[in-house]
Amino acid sequence: MSIFKTTMRVSWVDTDAAGVVHFSNYFRFFEKAEEEFYNKLGFNFDKINEKYGIWFPRVEAYCKYKSPSKFNDILEIEIHLEELKEKAVKYGFKVHNRTTEKEAAEGYVVIVAADKKKNKAVRIPEEIKRKLMRFFGRI
After folding, report:
1. Nearest-10 crossing angle of helices 45-52, 25-41
2. Helical H runs in 11-88?
3. pLDDT value of residue 44
4. Tens of pLDDT along 20-57?
5. Rg of the Cα trace of the chain?
6. Percentage of residues in the chain with pLDDT exceeding 90?
7. Residue 78: which domain range?
8. Is 115 an annotated catalytic residue?
């Protein structure tokens, strides 16, 4: 199975009063990794909106926390394709803390292609679907 990986450093603003990454920020890390992945494929959220008139709202999100990460830790976020449907994509994520060499978290998000004007689910454009399938070795 093909995966996409990117790294980021934990910023001070990502941490809470206990000095560890606030749980909600892992969803931001997932989304940042997704953004980097789309850039690698040659499109971004603005281009998708302009070209197809769609956006990708999240309809489900899950995260299991395994070990704490702290300010200045280097995190590696991995994305893999769990499911690709006509109107939805389920991405799985793993967060590995390169500083501590521990798994920090794992989870998933389900996104749906939605018409920006009608706020209604639509088919994922074929161009996007093809790029996803090609990258993840599903063709």
Report:
1. 60
2. 25-41, 45-52
3. 80
4. 999 999 999 999 999 999 999 988 888 888 889 999 99
5. 16
6. 88
7. 4-135
8. no
